[in-house]
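Subject: Protein record for review, amino acid sequence with backbone structure tokens
Why sent: The fold of this protein is of interest and is recorded here as tokens.
Enclosed: The protein record, placed directly beneath this head.
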Amino acid sequence: MNATIPAILSICAYLGSTLLIARKFRHGDDNRTPLYLAWFAACAHLAYLAINFHNENGFNFSFTSTASLVSLIVTLLLLTATLSKPVEKLGIAIFPAAAIMLGLELAFPERPRFLHNHNWQMSIHVLTSIIAFSLLNIAALQAILLAIQDQQLKSHPPKPFILSLPPLQTMESLLFQMLAAGVAFLTISLISGFIFIEDLFAQHLVHKTVLSILAWIIFSGLLVGRSRYGWRGRTAIKWTLIGFVSLLLAYFGSKMVLELILNRA
């Protein structure tokens, strides 16, 4: 089965949705077409991954394939959140990123890398890791949007883009809800790793483990600070982004070095 066609359709739909969202910033309409197009893009993206899974008898955990999977999960989480929360504006960053990740996987196929001795314990660890990263990815984008909104409201007359966003307090509340969900899955990921992975501090895992724990400490500390000391605004934005950078380096920094530079599995 040829997976190229759904991949190309997905990329076009992602980019089309992005353009329509950008247009909404200018005209301020309440058209749902960008979200419908994004749902189509995500379904086509999922079909592409499913066809590859069938053709290869398993999921390829190479760098580009994993990045493509994460971008799909981020997209699906965002689209699900739009059913009850006003977060569709985040699509202007998430949808083109998904198109780029899918395009890279399509243009630069890598040697398949499968999980050997794949069992339910490792499945729990991998799945919760990917979901945690995806949720905290959305939280980081929310923090960036919050920073732009805060800066614009303080320094300039509000632009149509800013006026189209929910109130600052609502945006902050959404940020901490995303952080709490991401930390919950990150906690499960770390616990399952310590229980089921034989040596989590082996040479090829130590950087990932340490950076993941550091990210967990940062995000958990931020949630505690919000609850006990009322942390918000720039403090929340700064530590959200620092924690996400740590997690990004843990998930993809070590993977990129091992696979693309050192050419190791």
User: Anything to note?
Assistant: The chain has a mean pLDDT of 84. Residues 146 and 172 are 7 Å apart (CA to CA). DSSP finds nine helices and no strands in the chain. Residues 1-114 form one domain.
